[in-house]
Write a structure and sequence with these properties.
- The protein is α/β, with parallel strands linked by helices.
- Helix content is 36%, strand content 25%.
- The protein is built from six helices and six strands, in the order βββαααβαβαβα.
- A three-stranded antiparallel β-sheet has the order 1-2-3.
- α1 packs across α3.
């Protein structure tokens, strides 16, 4: 399934403003009750592949899966990262159930991750927010998250770095932030 969601306000992304988010949902069904969903949404300016290429890869992978000949080398070597991720999520859900609880977009605002967020954001306790990071020095972003947690105890984060951190930076962030918040 292909989707397009208008963004209001537009999202600064790779030097331009992204007016809509486009992506693909894949649904796999095994038997009457097992269903797995995955999402593939290459981000213009960050992803190597286009949405069209991703759709072609997902169609290919779905056909290989339907024929019962899918193996791990098929996922890792012959398709785009976005398609690989989407199918991997759907396969995981088939075997283990939903990857996460439903997210209500009205209760999960997107915060851009700059220091002005501290003064303009007033999420309610227990709210989950998506926070775009890897745009400022890591120490500033750690302070931002700590400040938001101090302002709103119990706040939970969905962190999105768009491959902007090294493994070491991600580990440094995780060690500085309470795991209950992430």
């Amino acid at each position: 399934y292909r989707y397009s969601i208008p963004l209001n306000p537009a999202l600064p992304c790779a030097g331009s403003l992204l007016q809509q988010r486009q992506g693909l949902l894949i649904r796999l069904r095994q038997g009457p009750a097992q269903i797995g969903f995955g999402e593939a949404a290459p981000l213009p300016g960050f992803s190597v592949e286009s949405l069209v290429e991703c759709q072609q890869d997902l169609t290919y992978l779905a056909n290989v899966w339907l024929n019962g000949t899918l193996d791990s080398t098929e996922l890792s070597s012959t398709v785009s990262l976005s398609a690989n991720f989407g199918l991997s999520c759907a396969l995981h859900e088939l075997d283990h159930g939903a990857l996460c609880a439903e997210v209500n977009p009205d209760r999960s605002p997107l915060l851009q991750g700059d220091l002005s967020t501290l003064h303009s954001a007033t999420p309610a306790p227990g709210t989950s927010v998506k926070l775009k990071l890897a745009r400022h020095p890591l120490t500033d972003e750690i302070e931002l998250v700590k400040g938001l947690l101090q302002q709103t105890p119990g706040l939970r984060f969905r962190v999105d770095c768009n491959q902007g951190w090294s493994l070491q930076q991600a580990q440094q962030f995780i060690s500085a932030i309470p795991l209950t918040a992430i």
